[in-house]
Write a structure and sequence with these properties.
mainly beta, 7-stranded mixed beta sheet, 9% helix, globular
Amino acid sequence: MAGRTDWSAPRRPPDVGERISPYGDEMPDLPDDPIAYTALQPGTPVQTTDGSQFATVQRVLVDEKVSVFDGIVVLTAAGTRFVDADQVGSIHTSHVRTTLSADQAADLPPPDGSNLVEITPSRSMGDRLGRLFGRRRR
C-alpha cells in the first residue's frame, strides 16, 4: 500500500544530543535569536569574530550612574577577563559574538574593581511576570 507507515517497525535510538519529537520527526534547531544584555545568562559561550569559542560569560556589567551596558566578565583558560561593551558584536540566546580576533581575545585584561553593577537576569518567566504584576516573594 502506497503511503502506509509501518508503526510496528522498531525505531533507532536517538544519537546523543539529538532531539526527537514524540511524533517521530527530528525537531528543528531552536532559533538563535538576538537578546538584550539583561537576558544574558552566565555560562553562555563567548566567541571571536571567526566563531571560535574562547570563554564563557561569568557576569554582565552595567554602569549604574547612566544605566548603560559596560561589558562582560568572562572565564577563559587563562582566568577571568573583561570584554568591553565596544568589543561585543552581538548577543544571542546561544552565544556572544565579539569583534575580537583570537590574538586580541588572548590579550584581554582582567576585570578591575570599579563601581559597576552586576546584572543577574531572572531565571524564570514566572519571576519576570511576578515582578511585572507586583507579586511579592514569600
